Predict the 3D structure of the following.
Amino acid sequence: NYMKKYNIKYIDCPICNCSEYDIYINRAKELYIGLNEYFNVVKCKSCGHIYTNPRPTKDTIRYFYPDNAGYYLPSSSLFENSHGLRKKIKKIIFQLILEKYYNYNFKNKNYLCQLSFLGSLLALQSYIFFNQKIELSYIPKYVDNGRLLEIGCSYGLYLKKMSEIGWNVYGIDFNEKAVDFAKKQLGLNNVLCGDI
């Protein structure tokens, strides 16, 4: 049970300084550390930026990010080294979708040779696509030599995935343990500990 106090404040849009906004999500429940707190998510009327308002002050924001929070605990599935048929099919179709709809161009085209072997299984494409729909919604269109910055990158799983599909990735998080994990376990050398 968290008994610490924290402060909140209303802010103008951090992008364009407009003070007018519409409620985007009314009373979003804080779900990560078990507080009985609700925050509005708003959309700026000028530039369309979506942000929390009111939000915790810079001095008390860390209260919402304790070391034992779930987003700082690496997923064991990240390190599973399974090479099963289902995983291979999923990877092939994932790459095909990225190439067809997101302009990615993978250097290793070995998966195309595997299609004849897996041809009868391609009917699973729609099933696998829907399983990855959420995952794909966070993948931008490919940009040659694209750079991606994630603010609040936690232990770096998203950055790792994006680096594997061709992005130059950078991250920042104020949790030292998470940053240490991203660097040492995932090899993400462009992750810094601090705030902006």
User: Anything to note?
Assistant: Residues 85-102 form the longest helix (18 residues). The mean pLDDT is 77. The helical segments are 85-102, 110-118, 125-131, 133-136, 157-164, 176-184.
